[in-house]
Write a structure and sequence with these properties.
alpha+beta; Immunoglobulin-like; 5-stranded antiparallel β-sheet; single chain; elongated; 15 helices; Glutaredoxin; 18% strand; 7-stranded mixed β-sheet
Length: 500
Amino acid sequence: MRTEIICAGIFFQTSKNNNIFAPTVGTMRTRLITVFLLLATSLPVAAQGYRIGVEIGGLAGDTLLLGYHFGDRKFIADTTILDENGKGTFTGSQPLAGGIYLVVLPDKSYFEMLITEDQDFSLRTRSDNLAGELQFSGSPLNNAFLEYQQKMISFRQKSESLRKNIQNPPPEWDTRDTEEARKQLADLDREVESYYDEVIRAHRGSLLAHIVQAMKPPHIPDFDLPAECANPDSLQMVLEYGYMRDHFFDGFAWADSSMLRTPILQNKLQYYITRVLIQHPDSLAVPVLTLIDRSKVHPSVFQYVSAFLLNHFMQSKIMGHDKVYVRIARQVYLSGEAFWAEDEFLSELRENVARVAPTLIGETGHDLIMESSTGEWHSLHQVEADYTVLYFWEPDCGHCKVVTPQLRELYKEWKNRNIEVFAVYTHDNRDKWLDYIAENRLEWINVYDPMHQTNFRYWYHIISTPAIYLLDRDKKILAKRISVETLEDMVNRLLNGQGI
């Protein structure tokens, strides 16, 4: 059985950061991101106000900010001006939505606290020792939160010291000392796991318990492997992966919208989809959509998780991730489940999905029937080859002038191995095209569409050149918009029977 310390519960910041809070909506790059900002300010709250007294020793007449997390951003909720004794009050007629909040000093240092149903309490500390002097009055949960943070700091310091000595043993150490340090680290792991459980039991149902539960790493069990197993290590890895995939979010409080106003949910989502899951689109789609289904227990959480995952896979630079983006778009947004999505956004999303869908990895590339440089007509689907390189280019493109000669040299090596190049000239200047073909001795299939009858730009999402696709014998898309170097590596792997 294995566990590890995840010390993300440290909420004191003393660095002078001038960019604590999020920019305004007008600086955001995409319409989708505004969904997060609107959600951040529109979560439901109860019908009573808040009153939080603060006393900061060493400050007088200064302005404090009360902020909150929302995903990886922070927003301002309120301000107060301290009197000559360093005292002030954050107050409002409407309650604050639950979450982890920040009290930010003029120098941008800050500490954090929990906001739950009870929003009438006070705190005191000193500006020169925020963490060490912090005390809460009238908020037992925040005192427990403070104790939790301090305990996790202690665990982290012990863990870092042990790991440092294990990785770089002191000169006077021998193997027994190193083994003893490993034993102490394992004991510390168990102590941390036990402490997580203790906090969760003591504060069951509270925001603190939900935070600790979310930060508690999955406990991978021991697996009974068959005695006759030929590759036990490989089987162990497969079983561990399956367990992490299926149990990473066990116990997460999906019904608690307060988790949105912490950095924890986004961090956990990000880690899961980038570090836990295999990055192949077919391995991603089911667990990602399962996450969305689990989040439906609370409308705001469902909205956030859906928007975050759609945004992630829409912006991902990893080839094939657009397949997951299309699945989310179709099953959540375009199906009518996304109650928050406006008609204009859905219209744009529908159009974008229609553009992306034909070029998804695994889809059969659309047939292109085009005139060749010799006046004959060629059909992409009629090309007899184990693999076909579909190449969109034009002579005056600066990058094409680099890629085309490189691809020509590869073609010389590949043409006798049943690999063909179907090169589409994307403009309509026939003379310029033929001159370039002759001067550069391009002996592959050269075609063009001067009357734009094939709509190739739509079917293959061609917005710039060069663009390289790799198709199999059945013209299914194996790779798209790849560099010539990546193409060479992929083809060589395929020819050697290694797969992509």
